[in-house]
Amino acid sequence: MPDSPVQRHYRADDPEWHWLEERDTPEVTTFLTAANAESDRWFAPLAPLSDALYHGHLARRELAVSSLAEALDHYVYWSETAADADYPVWWRHAIGADPADTRQHECLLDLQSLSRHHDFVELGEMAISPDEQQLAWTLDTSGDEVFSLRLATLNATNGDSRNAGHDDECLLEDIGPDLVWAEDGQHLLFTRYDSTQRPFEIWCLNVESRAETLLYREEDSEFWVGMGKTRSRAWLILETASKDTSETWLLKAVAPLGEMRLVRARETGVEYGVDHRPGHFYVLHNRQAPHFQLDIASEHAPGDWQPLIATRDEVTLEGVEAFSWGLMVDERDHRQAQAWLRVIEFEGTAPTQTICRDERLAMPEQPLSQGLGDCPHFDARRLRIREESFTTPPSWIELDLDTGERRLLKRQTVHGDLAPEQLISRRLWATSDDGEQVPVSVVMRRDLCDDAGHPHAPLPVLLYGYGAYGETLDPWFSIARLELLTRGVAFAVAHVRGGGDRGEPWYLAGKLEHKENSFNDFLAARDALVEQGVGAADRIAAYGASAGGLLVGASLNKRPEAFCAAVLDVPFVDVLRTMENPELPLTTAEYTEWGNPHENEARRRIRAYSPLDNLSAAPYPPLFLQGSWHDTRVPYWEPAKLYARLRRMDCTLHPVLLRTDMSSGHGGASGRFKAWRDNARQDAFLLWALGVCEKADGNEAMRDDD
User: Fold this and answer.
1) How many angstroms separate the CA atoms of 368 and 387, rounded?
2) 695, CA 20 to 30 Å: which among 33, 161, 261, 402?
3) Which secondary-structure segment (H or E) carries 553?
């Protein structure tokens, strides 16, 4: 093995490489810089391919984009991103003004201009005051998810000016991203962190006097705070929650410094959320209802819950949105791993609760992601619905509740030689080691398959998974993915336990003492791709990010020969050491997800699967590890230590590469062009490893069988 950062920086006094956690020492930055240089040298022969992927992506995408316009009470709002810009600009014009008359356009926030002063720019929240005369926003300029609060007084301007006439000032530093205006127009709610970057306090700022008032402090280190406002604009919602327990307080939105009302005191293992229609609160909870149920409570007695939609064995209730006419409910079928929207209308006005309409929204295809879009008006009867699938780009539909008419408002434009109709997706079912059936979604080129979606010959496959926190991997369309698909690669998603794809039971069956199910499911998905003729056994690569990096890392330790390559992006791989350190961000809040290692049984379980603690001398496939210097969720040292240990073990002839982005956080680059460049580099590695494209100093070389 040639001279490497690992060889040059190995310290016999710390064979576990924990010294990489010493962020402020020059030795650490030297190590990471050297690893980046080593990675750059390895990627140099793939530069033509990476460039082709990048420019191919740009050619497929509509670079100049505008959002849908959204009317509030006085103004219409939208954003625009120029073809050569990384970031959007937000605009508005008065309701009734001619949208084509740019003299009537007022620039609210020009993020592209702000980005010229920072290597990283991430907008946390934009919040318009109730009278629409003030704009508040939070901004992160390092990637560490610590935000500043800025406030602008809005004044209508003429012409294409940027924030002309705005009184823009920084009011606060070191706060959380979330903002909520009280309905009095004078008070703004925000959050603050504790020493572990846990949002633990909710504050109220008087924007005129600058006086700050503490509304709520959470002392339990496993709980995080957040806040919101009901669509009815009547109540401010203050929430505190761990991974499996929650508690909600209410404040009248016109009197944010008034008396706080507790909905119901926390009960261990009980999660609940609250929405409002005049006279009533609607409570979605899992108290004696493992798949959640919807209850109703009087506005005068929010803790007295009465059943409205009972819990069901085959369906999980995932969310509820209240309107003046009724409710929009999110539900998920456990058997088919498919979610849908359900419209419930009530007859008459509150307190009457007679249901006069109860129906699911139509779905043009399945599987499909269908969700409620921006609908800020409580009385709205024309709703915006967002839909997309693995083969259909995101579409925004206006649904008229009175006529049932669906009107297409916008669909993401796709250019190039691979149109959405030239793709096909199908659902496989993999049998895990305990007999459980695991859904696996696959998308590929239609011309490579028969009409039922069976490939004419096994394909190279990229298998993706996550499997934590109950997160769902509902179908999503990706323009960047087209660069892989056009080259004959199939993209597959393993909907493993630990995610929420088959409802709440699916999540519970992949956490804590059941975590091993996630890894077994992922490997079963890989095997099903081979057994059912979709994937070539020696041409399946794995990809996982964050907790998905744990999924892939643990799966590699169990069966390193199962994959021809893997990409681990900001991977959570030092699970035991991280969970043993309560001073790190996220640790204490994660006890109910992974377990508390200070308890012997939980420590044993975590130790048994933590990727860094279970490396072996088996030959690992090519690995590309990616970290971010400012990442507070998965510190840069986790992928760095995995890289160092694997290289030091010298158990493989394949490349193990590490690239650390020294100017970004957990989500990677904030600018879209840099993010697309990073994605192209990653895909070049995958195409090389899958045997689709070769490393060469010249032009991209395609394999004959593709």
Assistant:
1) 7
2) 33
3) helix 547-558
Annotated active-site residue 166? The verdict is: no
Distance CA 8, CA 27 (A): 11
Q: Is 661 a catalytic residue?
A: no
Residue 125 DSSP SS3: strand
Whole-number Cα distances in Å, 324 to 143, 183, 280, 347, 458: 40, 18, 11, 11, 53
Q: Is the pLDDT of residue 699 over 70?
A: no
- CA–CA distance, 169 with 173 (Å, rounded to integer): 12
Among the listed residues 246, 207, 212, the one whose alpha carbon sits nearest the alpha carbon of residue 226: 246
pLDDT tens, residue by residue, 545-560: 999 999 999 999 999 9
- The residues, ordered by sequence, that sit 6+ positions from 529 with a Cβ below 8 Å of its Cβ are 428, 440, 442, 461, 463, 492, 535, 540
Relative to beta strand 656-661, strand 623-628 is parallel
DSSP 9-25: H--TT-TT-GGGG-TTS
pLDDT in tens, 676-698: 999 999 999 999 999 998 665 44
Q: Rounded to whole angstroms, how far apart are CA atoms 294 and 317?
A: 8
Residue 162 has pLDDT above 60, yes or no: no
Write out the two tokens for 501. 């794809």
- Look at the pTM and tell me if it is higher than 0.70: yes
* Active-site option among 432, 546, 555, 610: 546
Specify whether the backbone of 453 is left (phi greater than 0), alpha (psi in -120 to 50) or beta. Answer: left
Q: Model confidence at 705, in pLDDT bands (50, 70, 90)? A: very low
